[in-house]
Design a protein that fits this description.
The chain has nine helices and eleven strands. It is an alpha/beta fold and about 300 residues long.
């Protein structure tokens, strides 16, 4: 990644312009409609008018005033949105245009701008096999630009992934129920319990990030593959059809197992791929959730 401050600012500004435009043109209203506030705030007691909900009548006030009065409530809209973004070494992989980490940052930027446009607070946790950075939820454009900068250019100490550790940490620092976007390639094991606990406490949306090159190697002879997180290397013969098939099947099995886990925990899933338009995935998620809430 470039470390030239001018290039950093230029890239952040480019992402800001793109994501704000998408938020205003594509997702305006959808974010508001699918994420609910904490409840209802009492606003006033006023005299009953034709068409008012009978169940809203305040019988104590009605008895005192000898006329029907109702309690009026307004929805409490303010939410806390937490972005949990995996910055482990495997996120640097990208066989097309964007790396998985760059894709994660751009999608998270859209979510952050959607939240601040809705007057919600947004916070950030960057994690590897340790929690690398925690930024408490706040509002405002400058705060969101800081989140984007950190997601793009933060230099983590760790290389591996500990999803359970990140989820446990968030549960400790965020007592209030939040909307949690978990953006990761999920290259980890043993996080099922932490995911279950988090799903009960918060509104969790899992966003698995993948790259088509992870499950489809080209036929280029013998190559050395290195695990970005462990540094382990292995030589494989990509000219072998059975080797390429085994790699593809292993990748499909891992994807299917993750989808099954999230489905059984009743956690919404938005699959992201560096080889596909993430706008389609986001739009599909909003539409499906809207339908579910309306049912």
């Amino acid at each position: 990644m470039t470390r030239d401050p001018k290039e950093i600012l230029k890239k952040i500004r480019r992402i800001e312009l793109r994501t704000r435009r998408l938020v205003n043109s594509v997702f305006a209203g959808q974010y508001h409609s699918v994420f609910k506030g904490r409840g209802m705030n009492f606003e006033e007691v006023r005299e009953y008018a034709p068409g008012d909900e009978i169940r809203s009548i305040d019988w104590n006030v009605t008895a005192r005033m000898n006329a029907p009065y109702i309690k009026k409530f307004t929805e409490e809209r303010e939410l806390t949105v937490m972005l949990l973004v995996d910055v482990s070494a495997s996120g640097m992989f990208g066989s097309i245009e964007l790396s998985k980490r760059e894709l994660a940052a751009e999608v998270a930027s859209i979510l952050a701008f959607s939240a601040i446009n809705n007057n919600d607070k947004v916070g950030l946790i960057l994690f590897t096999d340790d929690v690398e950075l925690f930024i408490a939820p706040k509002k405002g454009r400058l705060h969101t630009l800081r989140l984007i900068r950190e997601m793009l250019y933060f230099q983590p100490r760790g290389r591996r992934t500990d999803l359970a550790g990140a989820l446990d940490y968030m549960n400790r620092v965020m007592a209030r129920r939040s909307v949690v976007f978990l953006i990761s390639d999920f290259m980890d094991n043993g996080f099922e319990k932490a995911l279950t606990v988090t799903g009960r406490r918060h509104d969790v949306v899992a966003m698995p990030v993948s790259d088509p090159g992870e499950g489809a190697l080209p036929d280029v002879g013998i190559v050395t593959l290195e695990d970005a997180e462990t540094g382990e290397q292995i030589d494989i013969n990509t000219s072998s059809r059975s080797v390429r098939s085994a790699l593809r099947v292993a990748d499909e099995n891992r994807t299917n197992a993750l989808e099954k886990l999230l489905r059984t925990r009743r956690i919404d899933v938005v699959p992201l791929s560096t080889g596909k338009d993430y706008l389609l995935a986001l739009r599909s998620f909003f539409e499906q959730r809207e339908r579910r809430l309306a049912a």
